[in-house]
From TrEMBL:
Pfam families: SNO. The keyword Cytoplasm does not apply. Keywords: Glutamine amidotransferase, Pyridoxal phosphate, Transferase. One of its GO terms (molecular function) is glutaminase activity. The keyword Transferase applies. One of its GO terms (biological process) is pyridoxal phosphate biosynthetic process. It comes from the Bacteria. The active site is at residues 28, 130, 132. It comes from Corynebacterium kroppenstedtii (strain DSM 44385 / JCM 11950 / CIP 105744 / CCUG 35717). This is Amidotransferase involved in pyridoxine biosynthesis. GO terms for cellular component: cytosol; glutaminase complex. Signal peptide: none annotated.
Amino acid sequence: MSKLLELGGLLEPLTAKIHNGTPTFGTCAGMILLASEVKGTRPDAHCVSALDITVRRNAFGRQVDSFETDLDFKGISQPVHAVFIRAPWVESVGDDTEVLARVPADDDKGAIVAVRSGHGRGNVLATSFHPEVTDDHRVHDYFVSMVEESMA
Ligand SMILES: NC(=O)CC[C@H](N)C(=O)O
């Protein structure tokens, strides 16, 4: 993903736009791109460093280890059904990064799978899972609220 952005001359303007405050939501590979540190990636991969997080690519295993589960998501009242497709997880977060969801604690040690910058005020959201493949729009609604707050 970062290679294509670089080849297309988009990496620099996209990075600048995100750092200038444009609300941004990354899912899965998008989370990896937004991270400040990435484990298990190519040495020449770039990241946008819009979130102070360390992520590990393919952390839950190979394509056949893709799975679905229900998650508690901070700011959304009922559990969210989450689809993980060869997903990354977040290994650590900086002081200014809010953890919004983890996989259930008995699975994969309760790994962090949703984060937001700036403790409820930041403009950058990322999930390890793919809310765009379900009919549940609540995570997208959460992002729309972030966009509205950024314009208030
Ligand atoms: N569904 C996805 O976006 C998968 C991401 C991919 N496994 C990666 O590490 O780049």
